[in-house]
Amino acid sequence: MEEKLIERLESAVVRLEALSLRSGGVAVSGGDDSAATDPSIVAFDDFIGTCFGRVSSAAEKIGGQVLEVTRILEQALNVQKELLIKIKQTRKPDLEGLAEFLKPLNEVVMKANAMTEGRRSDFFNHLKAAADSLAALFWIAYTGKECGMSMPIAHVEESWQMAEFYCNKILVQYKSKDPNHVEWAKALKDLYLPGLRDYVKSHYPLGPVWSTTGKATASAPSKAPAPSAPAPPPPPPASFFSSESSQPSSSKPKEGMAAVFQEISSGKSVTAGLKKVTNDMKAKNRSDRTGIVAVAAKEGRAGAPSFSKAGPPKLELQMGRKWAVENQIGKKNLVIDDCDAKQSVYIFGCKDSVLHIQGKVNNITIDKCTKMGVVFTDVVAACEIVNCNGVEVQCQGSAPTISVDNTGGCQLYLSKDSLGASITTAKSSEINVLVPGAEPGGDLVEHALPQQFIHAFKDGQFETTPVSHSGG
Predict the structure, then answer these.
(1) For residue 140, what is the DSSP state?
(2) In this structure, are residues 358 and 337 in contact, taking their beta carbons and an 8 Å threshold?
């Protein structure tokens, strides 16, 4: 009896919130008063309360940046609700009107993406998962087959795949450490699959249904929370549609290179204004130009220290938990020997250097490095390689997980104890793994990880296989 009473009270609160939202400026003047209480809008409220509640609850227990990005996610869902209400009161806009209509949602997505930029945070995977997942909310931009988007249901599923890579990293990293992080990652996935997907499937399988009697142009909702995700491309310049385009080209003065060639072909003296170069002005005859480099200048340049533009070199233990190796250039003898299994190593912005990690550490991250070599003994959680070029990583002990993301050129050397490692790759190329041969003391055997795949639809589902090349 009490449960039924609570459900009725919650339903009444949802309708009162919808009415207050409409009276606060969401509804278009002269629109349908029942838009905010439409069954699809009420269902969206239920979807937020049911699915997002788990994400919010877990985020409050974690706090910090995870809670901050979760609140941005809540803003994006509220913006989408406002847009759904407005769609029922607005006629379908043109491309320019649609871009303006989606502007509030774009602003929220940009706000979430801004949190992933700059120096890599300890909760980078959480921020990236939340920011990338917001692209799923742009199913609302589907206007038909000609718009270049997938159907709304497929768009939600495809967009979640971008965020799932980082969500899986969270599950691996906190599997046996903190259940709140695991719950947050699982709840985030349930928010989109099946949450948002089932909502779209039930109410908007063919896209949003615009009003046929509302206003012709859609303006952005007032004071709407900031959104995320890319907006539709801007309309062509106004000059494309101006009356000037109907004038014959011969009646318009030519500009740019066309004007230059026209003047040359006219037979006029186009070189009349040029100055004559005398012999003493030629480089070979000038006494102030010489091919000899001054010794002092050369020595001064060679002796200058090589610093990264990002800042001075750094190799230090921070707060007793994190080794920071940053902006090292041309250093082949970097060593970390006083470490333990509770510490992590973060390598950032290094170039043409080699780092030896002598001991077991919890986690290793190599970020934005070029021609960097890393040799480590054991890692408890994972070794991550992100945004790098031409790196070599050697594991002399064990490593349960190795992930390579957005990297071009990566050589992985595995020992016998690390052959069971799980290797995850995304948006990367030229990844080779070298493993011990069958005979003890023999040469290493090189294996190239595939970067091209074939997707074939068979028996009601897609089967994915790597592309294989064979010589004739």
Answers:
(1) G
(2) yes
Q: Mean pLDDT in the chain?
A: 78
> Scanning the structure block, which residue is given the tokens 């031409």?
390
pLDDT band, residue 239 (cuts 50/70/90):
very low
State the residue for tokens 């995870």. 66
The residue to which tokens 């969270």 are assigned: 170
Question: Could you give the CA distance from residue 169 to residue 181 in angstroms, rounded to a whole number?
Answer: 11
Give the burial string for 37-67 (b: 16+ CB within 10 Å, else e): ebebbeebbebbeebbebbbebbeebeebbb
Is-contact 359 339, C-beta < 8 A?
yes
What pLDDT was estimated at residue 441?
73
In three-state secondary structure terms, 90 is strand
Bridging pattern class, strands 370-386 and 351-367: parallel
Burial (CB count <10 Å: 0-12, 13-18, 19+), residue 248: exposed
pLDDT for 128 beyond 80? yes
Q: How far apart are CA 353 and CA 327, in angstroms?
A: 10
**153 has which bridge partners?**
none
Do 374 and 396 contact (CB within 8 A), yes or no? Answer: no
**By C-alpha distance, which of 406, 438, 405 is closest to 423?**
405
What is the token pair recorded at 163?
């965020």
Q: Count the residues in the chain.
A: 472
CA 71 – CA 461 distance, rounded (Å): 36
Closest by Cα among 116, 120, 157, 26 to 80: 26
CA distances in angstroms from 271 to 264, 268, 276, 277, 418, listed in the order given: 10, 9, 10, 13, 73
What's the rounded Cα separation, in Å, for the pair 135 and 163? 9
Residue 268, pLDDT > 80, answer no
Say which DSSP state 284 is in.
G
Separation of CA 137 from chain center: 15
* Structure tokens belonging to residue 173: 């990293």
> pTM for the full model?
0.43
Dihedral sign, Cα of residue 219, residue 221, residue 222, residue 225: negative
Share in percent of the chain as helix, strand, coil (round to 5):
40, 20, 35
Look at residue 22 in the predicted model and tell me its pLDDT: 42
Closest alpha carbon to 317 in 294, 288, 297, 338:
338
Please check whether residue 405 is in contact with residue 388, taking contact to mean a CB–CB distance below 8 angstroms: no
Structure tokens, 334:
């970097």
H/E segment holding residue 380:
strand 370-386
From CA 420, how far away is CA 410, in angstroms rounded? 19
Closest CA to 427 of 403, 456, 448: 403
Q: How confident is the model at residue 289 (pLDDT cuts 50, 70, 90)?
A: low
Alpha-carbon torsion (329, 335, 339, 341), positive or negative: positive
8-state DSSP, 120: P
With bands split at pLDDT 50, 70 and 90, how would you rate the model's confidence at 306?
Answer: very low
